[in-house]
Amino acid sequence: MTAEPDQEALAVFCAALPQLRTLLRGPASGDRRALVARTVRAARLGEPIDRFLAQLGIDHPEAGSEMDEAWSPRSSLPTPLNSERRPVIGDYVCPKGTCTRVVHREVDTELPTCEIHEQALRFVGEN
């Protein structure tokens, strides 16, 4: 499955946004915070964000490459799986379907969120 370049850029930005917001707190980073806010606005409106990513120093991924999973989500942990039942296997995807971000479900990890749309990622179970 080949994604549109804008979807790839959106997925990278979505994964990086929590870390960006953490790093840009304080008065010294006001201009960069404004740039992040403009990027979020553009993403929500479906506008291209590649030029903003370059200004933020975020690399666009190679086509077909795995995204860096170093960016961690910051929401609550999901309900623990009951060991007597068969585990539900699947991935979390963009809640609006606007990007290609995929987060694999793992035990004892927080529910991943989309900072662009301010929603939890949508779970898609494997059949």
Automatic annotation (TrEMBL):
Residues 64-83 are annotated as: Disordered. This is Uncharacterized protein. Residues 73-82 have a biased composition (Polar residues).
